[in-house]
Design a protein that fits this description.
Blueprint lengths: L4 E5 L3 H13 L3 E6 L2 H11 L3 E4 L8 H11 L4 E6 L4 H10 L3 E4 L4 H12 L9 H15 L14 H11 L4 H8 L3 H15 L4 H10 L5
Parallel strand pairs: 1-2, 1-3, 3-4, 4-5
Helix pairs in contact: 2-3, 4-6, 6-10, 7-9, 7-10, 8-9
Length: 218
C-alpha cells in the first residue's frame, strides 16, 4: 500500500496512535493525526490524504459535520468511519453525509487494514450487517420518491458499464462482479472509476444510491 495517504481522526490519543502505528507498519503513509474535527477540516487540504479514518464521536463537532467539512475542502477524499457505535441512524447519517464505509472498532486488525485498502480503491466497506441496512435505506428512499427510468443511463454509459452498475446496485463487491462477468478485478475497478467520472460522483456509495434511484437493482 505504498503511496496510499491516510489521515487518522480520533479523540483518544492512545487509540489514535495505535491505529496510526498499525497503518504505518502495513505500508500506508500516515500524513496527519487529529484529535478534533475542526482541526481535521483545517488540515485536510494541506495533508491531501486518500483516506480519512474518522471516529464518529468527537469532542468539538459531530463526525457527520466533519465528513461534510472534509468533502468540501477535498471532494475526492474517501472517508472510512471507525466507530464504537453501530446505531442504525448514525450509520445512515454518516453515509448520507459522504462516508465511503463504516467499520466498528471491534473489527480485527486485519479486517481494518483490508477496509482501508478497499476504501482507497473506492469500494464501500461495512461491518457485516450494516451494508444491508444502507442498501435498504436507499431502496426505501427510491421507492418513496420519483425514480428516473433506467433508460436515461444508457446514452451516458457503455453497455458493460451499465451492466457493472446494475451489479453494484445489488451490493456486490468488485470480486463478486468480476466472477459474475468473467472479468479481472482491475477491469471492474476501471469500469467503476469511468462511471464515477461520467456521472460526476465521488465514490461507490454515491454510485449505489444513483443506481438504486434509477431502478437498476431490479
Amino acid at each position: 500500500m505504498n503511496g496510499v495517504r491516510v489521515m487518522v481522526v480520533d479523540d483518544h490519543p492512545m487509540w489514535r496512535e495505535g491505529v496510526a502505528r498499525d497503518l504505518t507498519e502495513a505500508g500506508y503513509q500516515v500524513v496527519a493525526s487529529c484529535g478534533e474535527g475542526r482541526q481535521a477540516v483545517r488540515v485536510v487540504a494541506a495533508a491531501r490524504p486518500d483516506v480519512v479514518v474518522l471516529d464518529l464521536q468527537l469532542p468539538d463537532i459531530s463526525g457527520v459535520e466533519v465528513i461534510r467539512g472534509l468533502r468540501a475542502a477535498q471532494p475526492e477524499v474517501r472517508v472510512l468511519m471507525l466507530s464504537a457505535s453501530g446505531e442504525q441512524q448514525e450509520v445512515l447519517d454518516a453515509v448520507k453525509a459522504g462516508a465511503t464505509g463504516y467499520l466498528l472498532k471491534s473489527a480485527a486488525q486485519a479486517e481494518f487494514l483490508a477496509a482501508v485498502r478497499r476504501t482507497a480503491a473506492g469500494e464501500p466497506v461495512f461491518t457485516p450487517g450494516l451494508a444491508g441496512l444502507v442498501l435498504g435505506e436507499y431502496r426505501r428512499l427510491a421507492a418513496s420518491g420519483q425514480r428516473a427510468p433506467a433508460e436515461e443511463v444508457a446514452p451516458r454509459l457503455t453497455e458493460r458499464e451499465t451492466e457493472v452498475l446494475r451489479l453494484v446496485a445489488k451490493g456486490m463487491s468488485y470480486k463478486q462482479i468480476a466472477e459474475r462477468l468473467a472479468l479481472s478485478h482491475r477491469t471492474v475497478q476501471n469500469h467503476v472509476q469511468h462511471t464515477l467520472g461520467k456521472l460526476q460522483l465521488h465514490n461507490r456509495v454515491e454510485l449505489t444510491r444513483y443506481a438504486i434511484e434509477r431502478g437498476l437493482d431490479d
